[in-house]
Amino acid sequence: MCNDISKGAGLYARYMIPSVVAYGQLQCLVKFLQTQNIVFPMVLSSGIAALIHILLCWILVFEFELRIRGTALANSISYWINVCLIALYVKISSCCSETWTDFTVDALHNVLDFLRISVPSALMLCLKVWTFEMMVILSGLLPNPKLETSVLSICLNIFGLFWMISFGLSAAVSIRVSNELGAGRPRAARMAAYVALVMVVVEGVLVGVLMILLRNVWGRVYSEEEEVVRCLATMMPAVAVSSFFDGVQSVLSGIARGCGWQKMGAYINLASFDLVG
What we know:
Elements: H1 3-15, H2 17-34, H3 40-63, H4 68-92, H5 111-139, H6 145-182, H7 186-213, H8 215-222, H9 226-258, H10 262-276
């Protein structure tokens, strides 16, 4: 890989380290609220963090001239802001007064049972995401690494932008299915799964059409280099198709997690993304 790209990536990764802890805390808080069907506070805190993030990026990248370091630091700070806002809500809100009992030793009693579910669930997502990240790394070995890395990074950025929609549906259907099955209502769980699948198919078609129709526009949003714009335009139909099927896969993964099939999902993702892909 090109030395400049490697150095920049390494610098960015080092300054992103604080966000790893914040992201872990954030996911715990998010799942705690999602299982209680408490959504609006998370939307509000994420919106506030996003607005602050824009300001932080401007200050750190341009005013302080930190460039790559500034973008990573802005991400880390924004994650921590989101964590603090949600944690504050959990602490003071009456909605969580009966479910949040502060930290006690009793929370450690079911750690092994928790790990039996959480580790395969994490592997399901990691085996998938690592495959996409590996594509960017391997693109640095191609004849024109700067062009190939730029184009593939932009493709994955656009892909990830719309993947958030299906990922949200995946999280929602996972919780809905698990809650309904836990309440002894399998028909309601099945209906939730069908509704999520219909929604993600419709969303995938609309997003795919949007990607293809605007294939000559996406590149100019990210770069002024004509070669990058042209290459990206040729890639967008493939990205659109991939986005559609990945959205369906994300929702199916959410259904599997809701049913407690994390280990099976991890094996399937290992075979499909890492061995075949």
